[in-house]
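Budget justification, computational time. The allocation requested in the original proposal was used primarily to generate structure tokens for proteins on the priority list. As evidence of use, we reproduce two of the resulting records. The first is shown immediately below.
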Amino acid sequence: MASPRSAHVETGATRRMLGGIGRTLAFMALVGAGTTAAALAPELVPARFNDGTDVDGTAVGTRLPVLLVHGLGGSNEGWESFLRAYERQPAWRAAFKPYTFRYSTGSQEVNADPAAPRSIPAVAAALRDAMQAFQDRPAKPPHFGFGGKRVIVLAHSMGGLVARSMMQEHAFRDGQRGGEKVLRLVTLGTPHHGSPLMDAGLALGLDTIAELSDTHAGFLAQLTWTNYDGLDMFLGRCNPWLAQLNNYAPATGGRHGRCGTVAANPLAGYYEKIVAYGTSAVQDEDVDSGAIGAYKPGSPSSLRATSQYLLSAYGRPYPNDGIVPMASAQFAGAPLAQRRAAFACDHRFIKRGYTELVRSATGTYFDTAFCSASSVTPTVPSGMPDGYAVAGSVFGDPGGIAGILRTHSQAERVFDWAEQAYAGHLQPAGARSDLWGGYIYRWYPATNAYVGVRDGNVYYMGPASNGDMQFMGTLAELAAQAQGAGF
């Protein structure tokens, strides 16, 4: 049998496949185009639109802070469509306040600044520091602190690994790991197992990928494939950092990816807090037939080329979004809270959305749509020019991202209200929210009582119910009651 190197790396077909699409194009989709001369110091701020105006100029109040973390070569500009949709959705605005975390990944800008982070854990440490600062700040404007609340993180691509590193590898001033400060992590196209595309670039002699894309190589090296699935990768390259970060996933066994001797990591993975979104195919362009309906654009040629490479170059197909295999984006093998799929999508669209042409009975217009949450039912057009189509999308579907954020926000309000309304039964000192078995819950150690939320209902279990699970009401009903009481 041919060795992996001779069978894969040195074949003329492989070189033509990747080289023929243009090396810059092959990686442009991952790293983005364009850089700035000076590094942006890592910064966490209340979200702003691209024109510099505030998205939400009010204190977090009884809502939850939601941190938006971009990926490699990305920027906060990529969250614009989501934030514009947020502006137009009263239910979203009532549930959470968005913050954005930005950092530099370009080689020129990072190399020009000795203080700039040069690895994913270094960026994660900067995120930890920024979160600590917002925990210490007053909640009222212009400080916009977190008000003592834990956060939800919504992260795209490498941003999900930044968040996971912060949660697992970094401690806050009180000694708690970052994962204790996070209620939920939602990842969009995150390479939890890396991507073979990065190995391909390195193996083909592109050891300094920054020369092609101006992306710092320190980040790229931590995005290579961990070989969690036994793919016999070539050249003996190893991604020890990601292998160690992932080593509690059952599918990895004791192998820790292809690194073999990576030491076990005793720290909790907080997998029960992760909802991982992925997509398995780039988007074909809809042909405008002139009939009533919505017409989506196709994925860019760079993503089409890299998608085909991942499907055909390894002796086994890797369904992917143009950059990240579906199995990696959904963190196969890890005991996650949920795995979700996005449709009519790719690595860019899953975060940014796309502009679609809509032909209706009353006229033709363009709006911004987001990837569909269903393979059967597409995202519903907004119904207006320059609108934002969220219904049926990964963001706006009842079980979608905004729904996840809203459920956590309502649960926290109900818990806070119950602690005041039933203080004698609960004795809330030392209580905090957690996740288990599909429940969002708080445990009250003084009384060994629980208040939990699952499937839209609220339950109590403790001495007042003789240890039995007791239905308290629906989450919607009790959240409205809590809000009416000032929570």
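The second record produced under the same allocation is shown here.
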Amino acid sequence: MWAQVINALLGIWLTASPAILGIEDKTISNNAHIVGPVVASFAIIAWWEATRVVRLYNIPLGFWLLLAPWVLGYDQMSVIINDMVIGAAIVWLSFVKGNIEGTYGGGWSAIWKKDALHTIEARRTPRV
């Protein structure tokens, strides 16, 4: 979960960075204002075990930040470095899985499994 907390903070930084770095180009600041909250949202959703897979949705956004300086034509070196470092960190941190302490459900395929989790649990629990 620590990686997703950092990703959420990176998303918040990305949202605030146009004002902090003095970016006047509307295209660049709009990009940061769109990608930043989405990264933070996906990271916060991924804090819980049941929704941990949502962390992977940040990978394309991180790669977009790596490509954005050339696609959108950034002209300030500080902004290029900012997006490149943030994008690389988001991609790297999105691959950190985190601790899984329990198993939840099993989906529809659990119905057809011979020893599905719900049948094992039912055998362990005594009937009254």
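A brief technical remark on that second record: Residues 46 and 54 are 5 Å apart (CA to CA).
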